[in-house]
Design brief:
With 165 residues, the protein is α+β, with helices and mostly antiparallel strands. The protein is 50% helix and 25% strand. Keywords: Membrane, Transmembrane, Transmembrane helix.
């Protein structure tokens, strides 16, 4: 059985891809929020304790705010980099078959075996597929039918069990 998905590397796709990867794929998002909140609370507590005379508490609050909003800051620079690359605006075709995931784009083709996929995360808006750390495919549900989602889920989990066994 074969399923195909096509998408364009435009601003809306890349923005949604980043948001979904940060929200559902990042293991450190909660830690970033906790550290940022601790800086803010600690800075305010130090400011109250010092009677409002020290400069350090405001530096801690500023660091906390930056930490809390760091994903927005990272998104801005990441989008700028992606939209400035030679791949911006190109169409990518992913074909899912029994052998693996075939990628075809303007600058090349590749094949990833199902056993080579490290992680699959289902989000409310689509699928995140990690063939290796730091690289992921985001597939919005709008470009996949239910049969394709089931097929991918089955192949990823069967492939990872075979690779582990």
């Amino acid at each position: 059985m074969t399923h195909t998905a096509k998408y364009h590397l435009d601003r809306s796709y890349l923005s949604e891809s980043f948001d979904q990867a940060v929200r559902y794929g990042s293991k450190w998002k909660r830690v970033e929020l906790a550290i940022g909140t601790a800086f803010i609370v600690g800075g305010l507590a130090l400011w109250v304790y010092s009677g409002g005379e020290l400069f350090l508490p405001w530096m801690l609050v500023l660091l906390g705010v930056i930490e809390v909003f760091s994903s927005r800051i990272k998104k801005f620079f990441w989008l700028r980099k992606q939209l400035g690359s030679k791949h911006a605006g190109s169409e990518v075709t992913l074909t899912f078959d029994d052998d693996g995931v075939r990628t075809a784009g303007r600058f090349g083709n590749s094949v990833i075996a199902w056993a080579g996929i490290e992680r699959l995360v289902e989000t409310p808006k689509g699928l995140l597929i990690w063939p290796q750390k730091g690289i992921y495919y985001y597939l919005p549900k709008s470009i996949l039918d239910d049969g394709a989602v089931s097929f991918i889920r089955q192949k990823v989990y069967d492939g990872s069990l075979q690779a582990a066994g």
